[in-house]
Specification:
It is built from four helices and seven strands. It is α+β, with helices and mostly antiparallel strands and about 190 residues long. The mean pLDDT is about 85.
């Protein structure tokens, strides 16, 4: 077996996430909360269009990363199996974490165009890692568009936002995705 090289950094990150999940201990461990939630949405756009909203960095940044509560310092993604997604947000004044950086480091584990995206990530608040997550997005065509299912499986460590807040955050993001898709329908891109 060859040693991991520089191009293997996303694979190394996946290993780190798996190690964190394994080391987090049994479900009864009071320092770790394990939780799964499933969110479902129907969007008036074809699966290929909804998939593209996840696959294109500028599109995903607009509905996934942007927020009035923080400044996006970094949002980078290499949308391929083994590719990384990195985001850094700095909280704005007025909130409980003013000036603190929230960092997300993840990797894409599986991508089936127009159908499925599976990613693993860790989330850190300041210098403290607060969670490790596995997120599966599935897309299915409907008569009027696309049915999206988001399954989030998480291990929440001390100081974490917790499952209820994380679910609320994903609900907001999926609502923002709906607005983004509606804006595209109302203002389609110009054809050159």
């Amino acid at each position: 077996m060859r040693p991991l090289g520089r191009d293997d950094e996303p694979i190394r990150r996946i290993g780190e996430v798996i190690t964190l999940l394994v080391r987090s201990g049994p479900i009864a461990d009071p320092t770790v909360v394990h939780a799964t939630f499933v969110l479902e949405r129907v969007y008036p756009a074809k699966p290929e269009r909804v998939f593209a909203a996840f696959a294109k960095a500028s599109s995903k940044r607009s509905w996934f990363a942007e927020s009035p509560s923080h400044d996006v310092e970094t949002f980078e993604m290499d949308f391929q199996i083994g590719g990384a997604e990195t985001a850094r947000y700095r909280f704005k004044p007025g909130g409980p974490f003013e000036g603190v950086v929230l960092a997300s480091d993840g990797a894409y584990l599986d991508i089936q165009p127009g159908n499925r995206i599976v990613s693993a990530s860790t989330l850190s608040l300041g210098d403290q890692r607060i969670s490790a997550s596995l997120v599966t997005i599935t897309l299915s065509p409907t008569r009027d568009g696309t049915a999206l299912t988001c399954t989030h499986q998480g291990a929440f460590f001390e100081g974490a936002d917790g499952p209820k807040m994380r679910e609320a955050g994903w609900r907001r993001r999926l609502d923002q995705l709906a607005r983004s898709l509606m804006n595209e329908i109302q203002d389609p891109p110009a054809v050159a």
